[in-house]
Amino acid sequence: MTDQSYTLFETAIGTCGIVWTARGVCGMQLPEKDATATRTRVQRRHPTAIDASPPPAIRRAIDGIVALLAGEKRDLGDIAIDDERQSDFNKLVYAIARTIAQGKTMTYGEIAERLGDKTLARAVGHAMGENPTPIVMPCHRVLAAGGRLAASSQNCSC
Predict the structure, then answer these.
(1) pLDDT tens digits, residue range 81-91?
(2) 120-130, pLDDT tens digit by residue?
(3) CA atoms of 117 and 11, how far apart (whole Å)
(4) Cβ contact 157:131 at 8 Å
(5) Which residues are known to be catalytic?
């Protein structure tokens, strides 16, 4: 496994955390009740990660996330994600989810159909619930049937 680093950063919604390796972003943490709680959650999920200054590519990712959370229209599709620890199925689901344009959505069933088997919708929902990089990998753009926000979207690894 590659070495992991992390940093916390301020956004319009509170203190977020980002975890990365030499390959890209491998974890995102949305704000907890305060910065200490956010740091604790990052350290619990990524126990080998060290607090570090972000390299230029991660700094650009942070700047994009900050702008997006401040309400600016930003495409985060060019941010490299290190999906080394993800299952092959989740990698496929996340690759499709990352193609969803800002302001658009897809359902679990639509992603399942793109994978070639519409019966995989529940598995797609499970993958969305395991998303380690929310915001960067937009699980919030993937909905349950009928356009409903599903429990996995509300419970992603945020």
Answers:
(1) 999 999 999 99
(2) 999 999 999 99
(3) 39
(4) yes
(5) 139
Pick the CATH number of 5-69 from 3.30.70.260, 1.20.120.530, 3.30.160.70, 3.40.50.720: 3.30.160.70
Other beta carbons within 10 Å of 107: 19
- How many C-beta atoms lie closer than 10 Å to residue 69's C-beta? 18
Choose among 46, 47, 77, 79: nearest CA to 62: 79
pTM above 0.70, yes or no: yes
State the DSSP code for 55.
P
> Whose CA is closest to 109, among 154, 150, 155, 157?
150
C-alpha distances out from residue 95 to 20, 45, 51, 89, Å: 18, 22, 28, 10
